[in-house]
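Troubleshooting: if your tokenizer reports a length mismatch, compare against these two reference records.
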Amino acid sequence: MKNLLGLFLLHLLLGACQPSTDSPVSVFIEESLQEDLKDGRLLLIFSTNHEAEPRFGISDNVGTNQVFGMDFENYQAGESLVFDPESFGYPIESLADIPEGEYTVQAFIQKYETFTRSDGHVVKLPMDQGEGRQWARAPKNIYSTPKKITWEKGAELSLTLDQIIPSVTEPEDTPYIKHIKIKSEKLSEFWGRDMYLGAHVLLPEGFEENPNQYYPLMIYHGHFPSDFGGFRTSPPDPNLGEDDYSARFGIYGYEKMQQQEAYDFYQQWISPDFKRFLVIEIQHANPYYDDSYAVNSANLGPYGDAITYELIPYIEKEFRGIGEGWARFLYGGSTGGWEALAVQVFYPDEYNGCFAACPDPIDFRAYTSINLYEDKNAYFKEGNFRKTPRPGHRNYLGHVNAMVIDMNHRELALGGEKSRSGDQFDIWQAVYSPVGEDGYPKPIWDKYTGEIDSEVAAYWRENFDLRYIMERDWATLGPKLEGKIRIYCGDMDNYYLNNAVYLTEEFLEKTENPFYAGEVAYGDRAEHCWNGDPNLPNYITRLRYNTMYLDKIAERLQQTAPPSFNQNNWTLTKN
């Protein structure tokens, strides 16, 4: 561990604007790739895997590649970039400490664009290019062809950025799946430029043949979808074998299994006795992340209002949704689980129920393994004579493979100190924080040391701590949320998300006038992202979000739908 003086000195270095002139690394840019380059972040990546591109190997795992990052501004065509040797790195912090040896190296530039927002701030951020705000795959970003080198102390390294990521190919409509994209007036006003929302829409069987039928709407929240997933009109590819391995689930043949599940869903979808409804997956990638968390935010703008009052009414008008709150339901897992609950809480009259699986922290007293209101440091539990790193990721046995400090230092190397990494802790900060004086999200904690800002934590509590908000406002919220809240989580969630669910359940079970009348359930030894089925493994149930809650939705519709609603096939006929 560094001493306090070392921490202070390194913190100063992180904020340095000018790179050192005695850097051993020079980065050149091919002339044809210089034209629209102005501001961005330069990454230098080392890998011991000589078969794969280094840019795809940066992770929280112990086998991660090494990355260093530095921002640059006002690039002028014809210039080369000198890599600042004092730039922060992950997992090794200093370029001078890279061991001698053979590596495959790669330079990469994530381009920034300038936004003049309606709040008066001018910020430079990486704009989504249709890929879902994934820096390593974002069109227009440029990189060098991987180069195998022998790294020695005092040696010089020269890299040339000679590759550019091509544009994304948009998915095509099919008889069942339609794709829409609309300009959001609310978001465009906030960001000072045209901003768009999209969605993939799954149409019910018989949609074209029954023009007088109107349908309930199921909103499947989650990360950026390139197309509608889990729906396939043909059987699995017969050429698929059983030899593909899923490291996440530890099983073989998972691709074939996924295709079979998608085809089974299609067979259900077209069967005569299956309920008829619309399903949508929303595209709301933004300059900070692959989605917006579907709420209004000081830094991201009014995404909650834009989705609820612009996008969803447009979809319902275009595809004959019923268009009333009683006929809309929310579900999703992880990010989507938080969104499902948050949208239900913030727009209680506009939706009729949420199914929140493995939600991101819904009580900030258990912000993963951190209590934002009592802890002083996010990275360490500190005593008088020692400090212990806080765990960030575990398996179902409780074995830890990443600490909170590791996860945040990776983001710090990739995106710097202004929440620009496009990753998890940075997007939470961007959504939940007030705007800082520089126009970027005000940090919840020092990204290097982990020291928590209690004033920012108080802002988070009042605006985005879902358990706190429900408890604070239950007198008015309770009657609108009665029977609408269902939460599911594994009790060995990899990111400790079950702890916030425990605290939320404790509040919900004590509610009165009214009692919340919902459900909270846990999967025994289940990891992220358990979604409510105790009889099947997670690698199956995660493929069944669009069908697994239908019985519970049917119960809700019987309780709340008007008499004209057809409970047998879930349609409302209009002449």
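Reference record two:
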Amino acid sequence: MMNVADNKKDEQLEEYRINNDGKKLTTNHGVRVSEDEHSLKAGERGPTLMEDFHFREKMTHFDHERIPERIVHARGFGAHGYFQVYESMAKWTKADFLQEPSKKTPVFVRFSTVAGSRGSADSVRDARGFATKFYTDEGNFDLVGNNIPVFFIQDAIKFPDLVHSFKPEPHNEMPQAATAHDTFYDFIVNNTESAHMVLWTNSDRGIPRSYRMMEGFGVHTFRLVNAEGIAHFVKFHWKPLLGVHSLVWDEAQKIAGKDPDFHRRDLYEAIELGNYPEYELGIQIIKEEDEFNFDFDVLDPTKIWPEELVPVHRIGKMTLDKNVDNVFAETEQAAFHIGHVVPGIDFTNDPLLQGRLFSYTDTQLLRLGGPNFQQIPINRPVSPVHNHQRDGYHQMRIDQGQVSYHKNGLANNSPAPASPEEGGYTHYQEKVEGHKVRKRSDSFMDHYSQAKLFWNSMSMPEKQHIIEAFQFELGKCLNKEIQQQVVDMYANVDHFLAEQIAIGLGLEVPEKEKESTVTDQSPALSQLNTPMSAQTRKVAILVHNGFDGEDLMNVLKAFEQAGMMAEIVSEHQGKIKSANGAELKVDQTFLTADSVLYDAVYIATGQESVDALKKNKKVNEFLMNAFNHYKAIGAPKEGAALMQAFLMESEKAAAGVITSDNTVNIDDSIEAFIQAVAKHRHWERQI
């Protein structure tokens, strides 16, 4: 099958890419500029003249170069890539990009935080956006989702209220990029449909390790429609091949200060190094006749379809292999819209989805300055565009001819509608009837059963993290009544959870009778059941002059073979020398690096090197942070004494701390360390 879209998006963008190397400076109208250091004046010390058209153009453009940031999802970072389906999905859908395994469909993905401004930190506790634009031969399909499969509210009319509640409070414009304040939790206790989502955001899912290690979800229930017109309900999933992993809260807070660009830097560097992030696209399918066979409403956006009840079928893979050339032109001007669908994909009556179908276009009209935002290069489809929509701000097309309306005779009714056989989009013919009402279905009224399912599915470390997250979040609230209301609300989910929150805040423990009776679990919800790998993990190697050069070369070689990324961290920049005089380039110092920026720490062997590290107080802090954040620490031979000097007696054989004496083969020690890194965290230290 001919792949029209393959590479076409990149060729289309090539027309707009500008390389200024070796070029002469010009105005925006192409006039060469002879001077760009001084404005035109009446004499050397005289006033600037208005006739200086270059100054006026340059300053005017600067004054107008900022556009309104997104109200939500303002802080984002994007990358290009491609998607390939594993086998034809014709059984479920007629969407062309889901038919041919050999076809590469270009994609652009924007990851984001939800609550904060563009200047906020990456590692805050928040839901993360995961928006994917597929440039298919039939037009653009936008899968606009989050890293959490449910949402706070059930009806879009509540969305302005939700966002107002978690944004900085209007009377003092605080706090930034945080929900740990009164107005958010006041909203939550008065809109209890949020109980499930708040458990997710206060779990480890709210502080992901990396965009590359984060699931994505379409959240809503959509329809897939095949060529015969048969429809199935569907939910979309992105499954990262590196597994789903998170930070710990203390670590996330420290990263916000050490490197507020932590997630975007991680994504950018991974792609530049060729460690291309990969995600499998999964679908959950429910037959229309089975719509009412579950104890939850399949259209409720605050509910998941448990994978044990409705399996996820992995149908294809997305690879992100190219960074953007310009963040503003591509990432910030990318306009996603849940209503951008292609034949074979349709909507359902999910009331949150229905509202988003209006909201996204309305938002882009304001943010991008008019109705022609789809002509911006990053938004242009690779399929041809022909219609009678004309004029408006920033119109780039030069439409030819006399006619700009439908139907017409002067142009033989061109452009003419396409039949379904010709690829024309047709909406699924769903029978709809009922009275006009402002009401929510009774099937949406269970707000606690799935929250209980989520809680039941967590491991003990994950449950402890949720408890501590609530204690932190509510501990920042000033209103004691709101704190107590949240505790009382979560007593409907799990009494132990509510009790622990209450004890931590000095509040009244509610009665146990309110607790949900749900006993089911969904193992797929726990991050302890995700793939574990050392690939692309970043390791800090602590080293000083006098290190064992042969051992360290073996370490670096083994790390490279395992797909791990190593950085040499020492007291100063430049080069250091091994015991036999060989030189090694230093990547970071203890001032520019911190263990929170790495997945693991390794102490190089060599008595002189270890002795020098012992004298540096920052090494102590480096190791203790790594230990307290449950990371793997490698300390073979002489390094063992350095590590154990900082540990309590009971911790000297702690999980994930790999030590050895001089009788142990260094290769065995390295292999044990790599396996410890692959585990991500060693929660045995917490229990």
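Descriptive notes for reference record two:
- The domain at 185-199+457-524 is CATH 1.20.1370.20 (Hemocyanin, N-terminal domain).
- The mean pLDDT is 94.
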